[in-house]
What does this fold into?
Amino acid sequence: MDPSPDFVLVFSLDPHYNSPVRGLPQDKGVKAKRAEQLRSEHSALVTRLKTAGFAVQGRKGAHSTNSLLLFVKADEHRVRQEATRERMSDWLHGLASPKPSPREPRDFAAEPIEESERLRLVYSILTSSMPAGEAASIRSSASTGPVCGLPLVTQLPPSPANKVEFPHLVDMYPPHNPVQNRLWLKRWSNLPTNSPSTTGSRNPLDMLTIPQHELDDLKAVLGERVAMYFAFLSFYFRSLLFPSVLGLSFWVLGLPFHPLLAVGFVGWSIVFIESWRLRERAISVQWGTHGLDRVEQARPGFKGEGKTVDPVTGVEKELWSFRRTLTRALAGVPAYMAFVGILGAAISAIYVVETLLGEVYDGPGKKFLTLIPTVLFVTLVPQVTTVWGFVADKLTNFENHPRQRDHEASLTVKTFALQFVAAYGNLLLTSYVYIPFGSFLVPHILGRLPSRHAAALSKSTSSSLQSGSFSVNASKLHTQLVAYSLTAQVTGAFIEIGVPFLKAKLVPKVQEKLHHAPAVSEKDKNESIEEHEDEKEFLKRVREEQLLPTAVIFGEYAEMAQQFGYLVLFGVVWPVAPIWSLINNFFEIRSDAFKITSQMRRPIPSREASIGPWLEVLGLISYISAITASSLVYLYQPRATVPGSAAHYLSNLTHHNVSLPADGSVPFYTTRLATAQSASLPPASDAPLLMGALPPAHGSFVALDAIKSTLLTAAVVALASSHAYLVLRALTRWLLTRLAWDGSVASDLVRRREFELKRAWMDEHGMRLTPNEMARRALGWAEEDADEENKREGEGYKVEAVGDPADAAANVEGLPEFWKRNENGEGLVGAVGKTE
It folds into this structure.
């Protein structure tokens, strides 16, 4: 039997957990007081729930958690009242929707209530805390009855500093719908079809996307936020077809770093982002969430400086100045810069160790020593990003954003700003530091090492370094990009599927060890509360869900944004990277569905009109890609060059074994950067081995000047490309808006809702008149008879009846004599071409 509760509240039965009663746990008096406080808190919680109209049932929690599960189900009449109230508020605030405008109050309740809508409304009743005495109003979206004011899931478990009313309430979650989950996974295990009534699609491209009816079904069960994520993932998956074909073509032709390839990738990113911007707008109109910010309530946890009245709705709200939020946000910038400095220093140090051990050292145990940088990276970088995530959350809460949308946008920017450094830092170092200056920096670093380490390296240094120069590994950028992009996808899949699976298996055992309960005697077992046989299967499933982590969509967007960055920022290095992303995302769609249904708790439904700040993150990455792609093409595009005196050095530098004819008649391929590096060959040196790796001052200055000049030119090219990007993006947005949005069904629905709101206001005030009649009433002529009207028209307009003398339409007292004279225009026209 499945009683289908709306929510499950987890209540800790540990009297010492977060108890407001102070004292040592061993004190018998403290124990008794805490036990009494626990019973009183439970009784007050159940009373609060029943007062709000909930049916409540309690059962024992998961094994070894020492908790109580409170199953709550809202009254059906209350849910319908809340749904009607919310729909009225949406219509009043002008949210676009495909539903026709109501003609009478019962039209708001005519539509059935979806499962996600019900859970969202119930969650609002559980967590909202409407001030006492505030009347329900569709203008303020206030509740239609008593609310519980329980802590939000994001604020749980509570701490004593929170001073919450129910400190032992540690969690709440909606149970999964196993029937819907099985149907979802069964349908998505195969390629989705374009229509629910057909077994195939005529358009092969429709097989590469999730059809709209599947997204609508998903929205009805899990809510708009989850459905919007899958809509984005599906759109992104299908959009990868173009860069995949483009990159494969250039890879087959052997044309990396080609300008057309860079233009193709950057142009695709612009079209993809702007197309999705319109796509999500159309989806939000279909789901009735377009303009959701108009009804967005104050963020839980937001505290204002006082009370004020909204000048539009007349509803009392918290007073808070954006200037204070901005000031607090700027105060957190030094903390971000400090973390960027720490992370940048760590990545740079690891990079140096990796270069020395991987490309300089060639002694015993090299295979094991080259693992040291990887261990350091995996150990240090995630720790820094994790600590920053904690600090970023605290800083965002300190900023005190009034709306949840602004809060999430600020947190997203802070989080991804550091992830950008962690994900792309090594690639940027390789592109703009190691390859251009490595032949000078590596010997310099070796010369700075302590003597004992220098001596250890000198015994096993590569032949190129012993000969007086260090040749950089020009293929390192390509190797790194392949490793990072593929590793990120493999590790991401393991973290999403493998880690939750292991947690589900290991967490119960760990908790049993940590919270080992004393053995229960047979007498206690017989006296314990027995559970009905028809409940056991249901309770087992709910207790398993209690131990699962909460589903968070934030991490899924971060993963897709990082993958998008690898493609557009460095796609010219490895043109076939989009193909692997296409393959990965085919499984990503299904693995995310499996994870949400099996490895995570059911997400609490919430409405969404967009992917939020992640759209701006993708736009920023796309803009930066115009800079990186153009500069990489300028620096590393192979060009045909006739061999000269530096040919052999360039051959070693680029790791190309080429045969150069003596007469120099056959060209070979090099890059602008390699040409600059060969401006001065390092001559032989009689200095000691390690110091001899440094070229003499004159030669190094010439080469460095050539490299700096090349990089400066690349910077100018990147600057010009960034400006061209802005022009192209504006043109693309304008063109797609005209082609795909203007005149579309979604656009007409938005215009219709705004138009009908004003027309309804005119109906209410009896102002549905013809334009002529409307003007007559506005001018006060509605009650005049025909004689008075003819008399007025003959005498001209009266200033007193029309308006102020400054009114241009009021300055006509009568027609001047000029307008009563004969009109000579016809005679002048007729005289054209005639001669005397």
